[in-house]
Amino acid sequence: MTKKAPVELPADPDDAPLSGELVARFAAIVGERNAITAPHDMAPYLAEPRGLFDGKAAVVLRPGSVDEVAAIMRLANETRTPIVPQGGNTGLVGGQSPRSPGHIALSVSRLDKVRDIDPVGRTITVDAGVILQNVQDAAEEAGLLFPLSLGSEGSCEIGGNLASNAGGTGVLAYGNARELCLGIEAVLASGEVYHGLRRLKKDNRGYDIRNLLVGSEGTLGIITGAVMKLYPRPAGRQVAYAGVASPEQALELLRVAERHASGSLTGFEFIPRLGLDFVLKHIEGTRDPMGEPHAWYVLVEISSSRSEEDASQTMEALLSEGFEAGIVEDAAIAKSIAEADAFWHMREEMSWAQKPEGGSIKHDVAVPVALVPAFLKKADAAVLAAIPDARICAFGHLGDGNVHYNISQPVGADTDAFLSHWREINGLVHAVVAEMGGTFSAEHGIGLLKRDELARTKPAAEMDLMRGIKHLFDPNNILNPGKLVQF
Ligand SMILES: Cc1cc2nc3c(=O)[nH]c(=O)nc-3n(C[C@H](O)[C@H](O)[C@H](O)COP(=O)(O)OP(=O)(O)OC[C@H]3O[C@@H](n4cnc5c(N)ncnc54)[C@H](O)[C@@H]3O)c2cc1C
């Protein structure tokens, strides 16, 4: 059920509902079965993971081919009908949520075929609606690795991953969705198809349309297919938790790890004790990786192209140096694949484990890696000055400088009263981020939630360029209007 958004969102557009006649014209393109209007059947497309956005739409269309997507867009452009593209509906900033009975939600989930795997060039060509986990599985069946990995990988789709330029835990070694993408096919606002499914690693023929579509959050085109890079599967993997005293020590350990492992360092996540406590309390089947508690934990993953033994040796060498230098207090190395997966599971469940603790004010920020400890110190001081008993659970991708700076309500506090501080706390935290040359949206995007903050804080010249690009791609403002950039 949709709950009241804890933050003030831009008002819903008051577009008139679409006429029955127009809905019927759209429905005729995909067939009645794939034009959903019954409230019960529409509900999963209108709700979203955190229950913050109250979705409304005239109809949910589920095209089964690129031609159908193109026909929808031609009609939408002719009739000036707003279209909200949707993938797995796991986005956290409301970009995929339609907001008006005058809008159409367009789900690409039926475009779900793996089109081709090229084992020599190491690429996979997929429809946009293929679920991320299925891309990973298809790569594995071909003896290769698709390294994009997110907590939502069982339901998010590759088109959504590209539209939001998803990050996740593999960015440190392999880059985000943008860096993994070689080519894109997309239907533009006019209904014209952009045929960019190239497998080229080099292509310097002018402006890069693919890279404009990546991260465009459904505002420039509907992604229908993509060519993604694959990698050799590591021959060995080793995962460990290290207990450290502070974020400074975690950063020191990162430097040691990079020296020992370089390109084989495939994970470096940091977690506070409070986060681990939440996981141990609320996530079934988890157990403390170490006997004694530590203030902070680092999850390290080493992947070796040579062997298991090589991965183990590298892990042992870096942890030994960490011990000798007084950085690591204790460590637990996973003894099996199952234990390695269990270690990762604890990290992946961190966000969900906060839910039973009541309201949580969330941030998805990044600062230069070297400044993460300083950021935490300053942000903690600002937050605790405003809400002294707030429980700060800052965790994330230390190797990327990306902190999920989440703040749980004080024990026993009134949830609504706590959440009413959302914007105030955002302001305090984002001010520290800005001072350090960081970003208030490291991987989740802008959508509706952060649209106005983007407009307020991004330099005017950059906003003008973004509006100009939007106008060029979508002069009638029918693609996800009101999201990311207003014009
Ligand atoms: C438990 C959990 C963990 C998460 N972890 C991470 C994480 O580690 N890193 C991270 O980056 N994100 C994370 N996310 C956020 C989310 O999963 C990602 O943003 C994901 O890439 C969205 O994919 P989706 O298919 O669900 O897209 P949707 O949510 O459906 O859409 C997201 C945006 O993309 C647009 N869009 C979707 N499909 C298309 C298309 N085919 N063409 C054009 N535009 C399209 C939508 O309009 C919307 O603006 C997490 C979310 C959850 C719920």
Characterise the protein shown here.
By secondary structure, this protein is α+β, with helices and mostly antiparallel strands. The protein has four domains: about 20-105, Uridine Diphospho-n-acetylenolpyruvylglucosamine Reductase, domain 2; about 115-230, Uridine Diphospho-n-acetylenolpyruvylglucosamine Reductase, domain 3; about 235-350, Alpha-Beta Plaits (2-Layer Sandwich), CATH 3.30.70; about 360-435, Alpha-Beta Plaits, CATH 3.30.70. It is built from 18 helices and 19 strands. The strands form five sheets. Strands 5-6-10-8-9 form a five-stranded antiparallel beta sheet. Strand 18 and strand 19 form a beta hairpin. Helix 9 crosses helix 11 and helix 14 (about 370-385) packs antiparallel against helix 16 (about 420-435). It starts with 19 loop residues before the first helix and ends in a 14-residue tail after the last helix. About 50% of the residues are buried. The structure holds flavin-adenine dinucleotide. Flavin-adenine dinucleotide binds near residues 84 and 87.
